[in-house]
Structures are given as C-alpha cells and as structure tokens.
Amino acid sequence: MAIEIIRRAISRSRLTALADSQFGDMVKAVIDVERRVMAIGGELHSDEEALLIDDGSAQGNLWGINLYPAEQGDAWIEFDSMINIRPSQGNRSRNVEDSALQDLIRQIVTALVEG
After folding, report:
1. pLDDT of the residue at 5
2. What is the pLDDT of residue 1?
3. What angle (nearest 5°) sits at the alpha carbon of residue 20, between those of residues 15 and 26?
4. Which string of b and e fits 9-32 if b means at least 16 CB within 10 Å?
5. I need a surface site. Which of 25, 52, 75, 83 has the fewest CB within 10 A?
C-alpha cells in the first residue's frame, strides 16, 4: 500500500486491514501535531515523515507512533520511533517523553480514527 495522509476520520477496521497486509498487528504512523493530520502505510516512519514534509509539515511537529488496532485504551498507541530522537527538542529517546505531547497525539489519533 502507498503511504497516505489521513485528513478525515477513517475506520479502525481499515487500520486492521492495513496491519494485516503489512506487519500483522501494527500500523506505523506519523502525526503532525500542528496540522492535525497523520501519515500511514509506510514501512518506515521516516518515509511517512518525508511525505508529510513534502506536503508542507515542519519536521519539528512530526512524531512517530505505532498503532495496534486490535488493542483498546492507551495500549493501542505506542510512542516509539527513531524519528522521535530529538535532543534539540528535549526528547532524547525513541519514545515521546512529554506527557502533554502524548495527550495531544492521542487526541489527534482519536479524531482521525473512528471505532
């Protein structure tokens, strides 16, 4: 599947189908916390990041996550990606370390994924 920028809500079942066709139980996604969009469908977060940058996103607003469509609650979003390592922004690990930023990402994902 080609990488796609999600601007309007999609179904969780669509994510499940994407997961089945790629990694089995997981979909990689990159969230633009400023524009409130996400890219899905890439093998690497960096590929999704590049597409969003080409679409007008600023790199500093992009955060990589993994979505597990079969999971519920907080367990379905994993804040882990190599693109998240940003010492200049105070994020020194693969995880999104700022809890307020995690909350914002959850809000955006909730708005963009129904069900």
Report:
1. 98
2. 64
3. 60
4. ebeeebbbebbeebeeebbbbbbb
5. 75
Q: Where are the alpha helices (DSSP H) in the chain?
A: 12-21, 45-54, 99-112
Residue 84 identity: N
Among 55, 35, 49, residue whose Cα is nearest residue 82: 49
Q: Which residues of the chain have pLDDT under 70?
A: 1
Domain with 65 in it: 4-114
Q: What is the number of domains present in the chain?
A: 1
Residue whose pair of structure tokens reads 């189908």 in the numeric block = 17
CA gyration radius, the chain: 13
Half-sphere exposure of residue 45, counting CA atoms within 13 Å on the CB side?
22
